Amino acid sequence: MGGTVQASRTPDWLLRGEPGLCRCGPAGIRRKGSFVEKTLTGGADLLRQVMFSEEIAGRPGLLQRLDPRLKAVSLVVLLVAVGLVHHVGTLVACYALTLLLATASRLPLAFFIKRVWLFIPIFSGIVVLPATLSIVTPGEVVLPLWHWHGAPQGFTAQGLTSAALVISRVATSVSLVVLLTLTTPWTRLLAALRALGVPRIFILIIGMAYRYVFLLLGVVTEMYEARKARTVRARRNDRAARGFVAASAGALFGRAGHLSEEVHLAMVARGYRGSPRTLHAFRLRAADAVAAVVVLAAAVTIYGGDVLVGR
Amino acid sequence: MHIPDGYLSPQTCAAAYVVAVPAWAIATNRVTRVVKTRNVPTLAVLAALSFLVMMFNIPIPDGTTAHAVGAVIIAIALGPWAAVIAVSVALLFQALLFGDGGVLAFGANAVNLAILMPFVGYGVYRLIAGRAPLTSRRRIAAAAIGGYVGINAAALATAVEFGIQPELFHTASGAPLYSPYGLSQAIPAMLLPHLTIAGAAEAILTGGVLAYLARTDPARLAATHRDVPATAGEPAPAGGRRLTPARVSLGFVAVMVLLTPLGLLAPGGAFGEGAPHELNLGQLGLHAVPAGLAEYNGFWSHTLLSGYGFHDGQHANLAYILSAVIGIAVVAAVIFGVGTLVERVARRRRGTDPVAEPETA
């Protein structure tokens, strides 16, 4: 995260990789992390990512100012528009637009690009690579690599177009989702979903689950840290390791069961009778109306422009 | 196996939501029926649990580690309907908080991992475990196999969703718009890693957690194991599952849906189903199409989807799948109707004859 970290309000020590969680071994010799370390690192990454996102969502910026209901609906409209596009050029233009929005919302651009591209679009690139060859996607061979029964085989125009379409579409879609989640605090997003007609029981479940993910994550981390503390040297014993994973997951089931009973009793004691009440008041402002028009125009332009270019 | 946005067409995603939304509604209804105030905290904690189970790194026999989904063990411990909600919420977190799995594709991911996987896995588990005691080896093996089959069913469904894309959606020049691999490539590509690595991880987690819970915390399993004795010595509690018409038709639908893609993959045509002009008369030692065949062929022409296709012959695969959906629904409805009728007749007969089967009363 580099430079973006210093500017954030999240304590510096929390964002730094801890030596205890480092996957690299002593004296710079890299070795594959054990399942304990991998799970611990995964948990730490999860917390770090969530804290960082919540913090950015609290900063002032263009998208942060808009009504979360509008943002949620806009996301779906734009995702569908992007999904229906047939040309790589249109998708690249849409992607450029998401970068513009990210800048206007004061998201650290390097972080935004890294967050979007790391893993999913790069992974997609590897996945669709074989599809560029004539053995998967038949068509006009533009770069012959070998011959098969006299016919040239290699990269096809159709295959390359398809790969470019998939990668640019995935990158644009992920960017749109990340734009929403990085500019909207989780609680506001949930309230917006409720306001848009998602049944209240789901909102309540999702909201409470979000709370208890972190509590139970603490339980898991403790179990794994205790295990790590008891481990003297790094010799693999897969059988014991599998036993430990099953036991820790099983213990988590037990803890979760007790927890849900306690939470239930606590809720009933506080007057919960099966129908939750929530406090939320959204008001659409002039800026939101303008944004709605802009989003609708953008969606029509994306789809219409793509159709005009030719199918 | 979380499908990101961009791999499936918006149309496919919409179809997945059409399947997922009623399943969510039924699941909520089923879970709410038991205790009205308890469902929200229970499901919330379960969803959190499901999310964390997906984080566990499981050491598998090839020396590396892999993640499991955990949908089957949740279904075994708390019932498949609870698993539907818990895994769906966990998938929603992954899609919204971490960009793992798409928003449009959320419905498809939910269908594969949160609906198909727990039900298939739980079904296999029930089938193999039978009435074996809670702590028996057979039950643990059943859980492991259930996890293994469950994740592979989900992988197969994902592969089918990917595989129908290039055929249905491509540009004028033939470049696929979404996932570029056809069924014959997507299915082996998805199933190979899931039959080996991911399947192993799921089997280890499902079997291991069930063994742990049966040994240390059998109360957690009580909700779904009422008719099962705790140990080999104890007698089994009375009352088991009955074969109701609804269950039989649902089972039929599940089997048929799983088998449907075979027709798209299989080469050649069906034996004895060719039209008269397709017959190789010389090979059969005939000089002309038999008179009866010629007369009665085409006797019934008022079909909805002639030759499993649309009238204009477009979108052959889509038409095939549509035909399959309609066919399965009709046959399932007939099975349900006949089953209900048989049951009603049997009950009436039992009602008029008080001597018959007094122990079931």
Automatic annotation (TrEMBL), chain B:
Keywords: Cell membrane, Membrane, Transmembrane, Transmembrane helix, Transport
Gene Ontology CC terms: plasma membrane
Membrane association type: Multi-pass membrane protein
GO terms classed as biological process: transition metal ion transport
InterPro entries: CbiM/NikMN
Pfam families listed in its UniProt record: CbiM
Transmembrane segments: 40-60, 72-97, 103-128, 140-160, 191-213, 250-271, 318-342
Keyword Transmembrane helix: yes
Signal peptide: none
Subcellular locations according to the entry: Cell membrane
Statement: the UniProt record of this protein carries the keyword Cell membrane: yes
Protein name: Cobalt transporter CbiM
Species classification: Bacteria, Bacillati, Actinomycetota, Actinomycetes, Micromonosporales
